[in-house]
């Protein structure tokens, strides 16, 4: 299923409002979140337009979680966070996706829930390109 009104399905301008597609894995799209208060923050969005992880078949669910794990391993390798927070919200965005948010003990928002979009740290195009290249090489 595909929904032209969904930023993860349609991509283009809807996705450009908050993210930059890095690449694809078997069951997901990997998107750099433009707000980079947490360096390396990405979204792993299911390729299927489903609202909840329970909407996937067992095989697809296993593959989606493998994709999420693979991206988390990449973030650990590249950015050496003390912890990665995983957010799977969907109150208003009815498309299964996880936010992977690297966090550091002495860093921004340590010890609390990460802000959905604090609008504090946006990068130059060169800064986005550098992060995308680093992550894409590991996908």
Kindly describe this structure.
This protein has 139 residues and is of the alpha+beta class. It has one domain: HIT family, subunit A. It is built from four helices and five strands, in the order ααβββαββα. It has a five-stranded antiparallel sheet, with helices on one face. The two termini are 25 Å apart.
Strand content: 15-25%
Shape: globular
The total count of strands amounts to 5
CATH architecture: 2-Layer Sandwich
Structural class: alpha+beta
What is the helix fraction of residues, given as a range? 25-40%
State the CATH topology: HIT family, subunit A
Uncertain residue segments = none
CATH homologous superfamily placement? HIT-like
Instruction: List the secondary-structure elements in sequence, H or E.
Output: HHEEEHEEH
Give the count of helical stretches: 4
Count of structural domains: 1
Rounded to an integer in angstroms, the radius of gyration calculated over CA atoms is 14 Å
Report mean pLDDT, rounded to a whole number: 92
Strand order of the biggest β-sheet: 1-2-3-5-4
The first-level CATH class name: Alpha Beta
The CA-CA distance between the termini, in Å, is: 25 Å
The largest sheet is: 5 strands, antiparallel
